[in-house]
């Protein structure tokens, strides 16, 4: 089992999860974080840190596409080990529908 970041993170990008990860397996895109599922040690400490519940255990139904999404972008984006500032409109973006289709950016973030 591993943990994955889901669509809810897009355009919210809270980074509380980064601070608690013992193996630094988060990677930063322009408007989303992902977890490298091959590095995640399944400790679960990141899940309760996400204020919008965007981090899920991969055994939940329907998450197979998100496992691959996380794996793909973890290869392309820089590693992030320090908490940054979420977007100014993060709270307003929480719960918005169709974020993958309408808002997702493939561009990398700054990393740390």
Characterise the protein shown here.
This protein is an alpha+beta fold and 112 residues long. It has a single domain (3-83), classed as 2-Layer Sandwich (Alpha-Beta Plaits), CATH 3.30.70. It is built from four helices and four strands; from the N terminus they run βαβββααα. It has helices spanning 16-20, 64-76, 90-93, 99-102; strands spanning 3-5, 26-28, 33-35, 55-57. A two-stranded antiparallel ribbon has the order 1-4. Strand 2 and strand 3 (33-35) form a beta hairpin. The longest helix is centred in the middle third of the chain and has 13 residues, at 64-76. The chain is globular and about 30 Å long.
Summarize the structure.
With 112 residues, the protein is α+β, with helices and mostly antiparallel strands. It has helices spanning 16-20, 64-76, 90-93, 99-102; strands spanning 3-5, 26-28, 33-35, 55-57. The protein has a single domain, classed as Alpha-Beta Plaits (2-Layer Sandwich), CATH 3.30.70.20.
Task: Please tag this protein with its features.
4 helices, 4 strands, two-stranded antiparallel sheet, two-stranded antiparallel ribbon, single chain, Alpha-Beta Plaits, 112 residues, 11% strand, alpha+beta, globular
């Amino acid at each position: 089992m591993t943990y994955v970041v889901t669509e809810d993170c897009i355009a919210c990008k809270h980074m509380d999860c980064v601070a608690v990860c013992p193996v630094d397996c988060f990677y930063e895109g322009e408007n989303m974080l992902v977890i490298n599922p091959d590095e995640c040690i399944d400790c679960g400490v990141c899940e309760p840190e996400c204020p919008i519940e965007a981090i899920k255990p991969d055994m939940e139904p329907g998450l197979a596409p998100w496992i691959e999404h996380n794996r793909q972008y973890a290869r392309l984006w820089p590693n992030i080990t320090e908490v940054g500032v979420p977007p100014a409109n993060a709270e307003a973006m929480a719960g918005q529908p169709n974020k993958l289709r309408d808002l997702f950016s493939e561009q990398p973030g700054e990393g740390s």
